[in-house]
Amino acid sequence: MKWMRARWTSDPCYAYYGVDGTDCSFLVYLSEKEWFCPPLPWKNRTTSPIRIETKVQQQAFYRTDFAQLLELMGSGKESLIFMKKRIRRLSTQWILAAQNLNQKLETRKRQRKKILIHLGFLTEEAGDVFSPVVSKGGPLGELVQWADILATLYVLGHSLKITATLRELQRRSKAEGFFRTMLLLPRIFKAVAIYSCW
Prior knowledge:
The protein is built from 8 helices and 3 strands; from the N terminus they run H-H-H-H-H-E-H-E-H-H-E. By secondary structure, the protein is mainly alpha-helical. The chain folds into 2 domains: 1-52, no CATH class; 67-197, no CATH class. A 3-stranded mixed sheet has the order 2-1-3, sandwiched between helices. Residues 13-171 form the Glycosyltransferase family 18 catalytic domain. One of its GO terms (cellular component) is Golgi membrane. Pathway: Protein modification; protein glycosylation.
């Protein structure tokens, strides 16, 4: 509450979600939009909210070609080159795993999600400590984990958008409808963040 009182005017998205400077509006926002607070007792929780879909939800299909993912990741940084090499090297295993999962799930329909992934640890704003040490035997565990996460989400058929600069994150957040992302920018630009919009 203290943080909200001090910063609720810092971004127009708070007003968009009904925050007007009152404690009540803070509680409603934190309960219903950010989920930091439990549901408010005076809200009717017996009925499910009506969800209006403006777009037809697409089905996710397993992918076997990683060319699009490698292109989405961008280029130029040693850390990205390392992550791409790992994805290429393990692509056969990812494809086999997807085929096995498909058999186990007996071709159940899965919803394709739009996912924005911000690799904040690679940004200039965060100091990109990984790229300079990749070829010198530096700590690669973080890059391995994120290469595997990207490959997993991609092979499962989700629609990915990947950013590695704060400017690109802000542009994509607005353009792709990841509006809640904008609330977190001051706090996450030095971290890795995954946002899903479905």
